[in-house]
Amino acid sequence: MAEISGDSLPLPRLYHWERTVPQRVILTQPVGGGQLQHFTWAQVADQARRMAAWLQAQGWEPGSRIGIFSKNCAWWLLSDLAIWMAGHVSVPLYPTLAADSIRLILDHSGARACFIGKLDGWMSMRRGIPDDMPCVCLPLAPADAIARYESWDAICARQLPMQGEVQRRADELATVIYTSGTTGRPKGVMHSFGTLAWAAQAGKKQVPRFESDRVLSYLPLAHVAERVLVEQGWLATGMHIYFAESLETFATDLVRARPTLFFSVPRLWVKFQQGVLTHMPAERLDLLLRIPLVGRVVRKKILGALGLDQCRVAGGGAAPMPLALLQWYRRLGLPINEAYGMTENLAVSHCTVPGLNQEGTVGPVSEGVEARIDPVTSEIQMRSPGLMLGYYKEPELTREAFTDDGWLHTGDKAEIDAQKCWRITGRIKDQFKTAKGKYVAPAHIEDRLCMHPAIETCMVAGANLGQPLGLVSLLSTAYDTEAAQRQLVAQMRAHLDDINARLDPHEQLDCLVLLKTPWTVDNGFLTPTLKVKRIRVEEAYGPRFEEWVQAGSRIVLAE
């Protein structure tokens, strides 16, 4: 591992801010009814110290695993700091998990306790928490949880704060991050305080960040991107974090924060675009943007309405960004930088350079990272000081994750252009072979499919079929009347023709299946970061593939 200075580790960063700017407001939390609660560094440190003292008083062995099960909120970060200060290891859980998945992670990690916070659907989740597990309720937790467990506020009110500056070594285990699992059972990725600190510093080099920056925290903190960009970025730079209250208030939350840095997954960038185009048709917007003075006013108005008029760096990741979408935002005056990484390398691997147009790629290799392409499989293999310690309790899987000479298998395929920018060409495991013996990489086809405004999300499948087929989950408004449905079918037929005209013959889609059933996190079709769970889609619809193809219709309507 590269040399990590002690003062760059997470806890020393907290102590630095506590000493130097104790009264600076750095967290803004909606608490309902339009009310906000603000936290200074002094308040953050005081509450973390009180909870750390309580955790230490429980007598658990050092390094005990403790869960954090909550939507994003200020107390999520305070819980993480308290766990570390008490000498333990945090285990984040996605706030959308079903009860069986919650139990699996808590059991597998050997968690001794769990913090329970903001959650939707708690009543169906609560059986995932063992009856004998000590739990602490964060503010804003569900009423039933508040009635069952002791509260954060009550503990902090009676507990004296831990004194001094507890230190954790760079090589100590800090957290076990369970992957969201697009292809199977999640694995517990182990990261140390040193890997977290290195990732935060590497991120600052990729995208310069400052104390004056503002971010909106809304993607799950259980996911590596939010954990590194927001939590570790916050500790590294002292920037101000605003939290989103709910899906319904998201637009208001974004306008309130007016973030200078904003990161999102492709699906949300598409939704922003669709929202703009519902108020102004694409043809008219394009025309206005071509007029110098008018275009400047239009850009400012649209970005202001989105809450992104102060955004100096916009980012995308977790899945490929369609090139047409990137170009649309650039015309709007908000170029999006794409980053590439994974939980196993703390999301630090490649990133497009702010200020340069490297669209269609994930940019060059990040500073401090080494990467290579396997000459046989075209797989990206990489290594850096941010690599995981391994998979928790899974030594065999850990060995399989690395090459014999210590490079991480990413499972992604890529090629490098003349400017040394890397373009992701697909997942090795996502490739499938048709009945004609031809391999199909679905990623670039899906990029084109999802650009139609009526499509919520999509997937291309077709193992052992003559040709691939496309499955799309539609927006509910796309078929709300019979006339709208007829219009939709005609539009989709034209969309399919346009896509097939750009594909090699073996890639062309036999048919497009329009599904009225939404794909959501709740029904298991999407991961918490809105990636399609291919296994779940194959299980649900695979038995009907042959039937749909043999029907002979290029556009198939299905539930």
From TrEMBL:
Name this polypeptide is given: AMP-binding protein
Membrane-spanning intervals of the chain: none
Keyword RNA-binding: no
Reactions catalysed, as given in the entry: a long-chain fatty acid + ATP + CoA = a long-chain fatty acyl-CoA + AMP + diphosphate
Keywords recorded for this protein, A-Z: Fatty acid metabolism, Ligase, Lipid metabolism
Entries under InterPro entries matching the protein: AMP-bd_C_sf, AMP-binding_CS, AMP-dep_synth/lig_dom, ANL_N_sf
Keyword Lipid metabolism found: yes
Species name: Variovorax humicola
Residues in AMP-dependent synthetase/ligase domain copies: 19-392
